[in-house]
Write a structure and sequence with these properties.
It is built from 2 helices and no strands. With 69 residues, the chain is an all-alpha fold. The mean pLDDT is 89. The radius of gyration is 22 Å and the shape is flat.
């Protein structure tokens, strides 16, 4: 039984380590993107948002149409 407990503890610690690495990566990516976007004007940010929304909408509509056919 002690081996099973150690295995569960090891799984939890490995899972915690992986989650910590993922959170650290997400935080560093968010910091990088915030640094890059900080210098954009409001008009440029709005234009990028509209372009991104349009592209995502087109992709989703295409998926829906392909699912119907």
């Amino acid at each position: 039984m002690k081996k099973e407990v150690k295995t569960e503890i090891n799984r939890d610690s490995i899972q915690d380590q992986v989650l910590k690495q993922i959170r650290d990566w997400q935080r560093s990516l968010a910091d990088y993107l915030n640094l890059k976007c900080r210098h954009l004007s409001a008009k440029a940010t709005l234009a990028l948002l509209i372009i991104f929304s349009t592209l995502v909408s087109v992709a989703l509509i295409r998926l829906i149409i392909n699912a119907i056919d």
